[in-house]
Design goal:
The protein is an alpha+beta fold and 259 residues long. Helices cover 40% and strands 22% of the residues.
């Protein structure tokens, strides 16, 4: 267990000082940690695990409706070192489920830090638009790159906007997969199309147009990971491509650990 924790620590230390060109190495180290976690805990726990049940809330017809409360605060990213300490203590006490959870939290913390590195690498300005830093998002729903999402928004008053999303995107990945399953060169009688295949800096991509949503450009990174640009109130396709080509796509792919 100590060796496993030291591997996570080494991964964390590299994450704090790592140049973007070496992010792929972190991804490989994380995969090794994941495999070690599974083998270690499965061996220890065996068939002793169980499932927890929760009581279902009851509803009383005479209950008052809520009129107070300030909502929830933003989630603080996991403290990697703290979670590792908890994991080691839990493992020593034979609390294997708790140990596994803490290791997963530590790895999620690493993912968030890497996501912030990718977000920081994005340009501050794209053509005539400026990055709205209040819209920056880095989130990880579970450990694993397929659950990491990074978002940044660029704007020009009054209503021109580009949103770039990097990571897991089930909706758009479904569109991409369907398109490449035999329909990539179909074209109607009209000279204008609402979807077509293009290249973005040598990468295979799709561009779509909708009167209500504007232009969308999709570059596939993995099975369900994409770079997606949603472009609202752009005048032409050429204007969209000029903005999209501002981004270092190969650099993003390397940081995500994709070839």
């Amino acid at each position: 267990m100590r060796q496993l924790l030291y591997l996570v620590l080494a991964c964390t230390i590299q994450c704090l000082f790592i140049p973007s060109s070496q992010a792929q190495l972190l991804k490989k180290m994380k995969e090794k940690v994941n495999q070690a976690v599974d083998k270690t805990l499965e061996k220890k726990v065996g068939d002793a695990t169980g499932t927890e049940t929760q009581n279902q809330p009851t509803t009383n017809s005479g209950s008052p409706s809520n009129s107070k409360g300030g909502g929830l605060k933003n989630t603080t990213p996991p403290d990697v070192k703290e979670e590792m300490t908890i994991a080691e203590k839990s493992f020593a006490e034979a609390k294997y489920s708790d140990a596994r959870y803490s290791i997963q939290q530590a790895l999620t913390g690493i993912e968030i830090q890497l996501g912030k590195l990718i977000l920081k690498s994005l340009p501050d300005k794209v053509t005539d638009m400026t990055k709205d830093t209040t819209k920056n998002i880095v989130s990880s729903s579970q450990w694993g790159w397929n659950n990491l999402t990074i978002q940044s928004v660029y704007k020009k008053d009054p209503d021109k906007q580009m949103t770039i999303s990097i990571g897991n995107n089930t909706y758009y990945s479904g569109i991409v997969n369907m398109y490449y399953m035999g329909t990539s060169y179909q074209q109607g009688a009209n000279s204008e199309q609402n979807m077509k295949q293009i290249r973005v800096k040598g990468n295979k991509a799709l561009i779509t147009y909708d009167d209500n949503k504007g232009y969308t450009v999709m570059v596939q990174l993995g099975q369900s990971s994409l770079i997606v640009w949603e472009c609202v109130n752009f005048a032409t396709e050429d204007e969209v491509m000029s903005a999209v080509n501002t981004f270092d796509i190969d650099g993003i792919k390397k940081m995500m650990g994709e070839k």
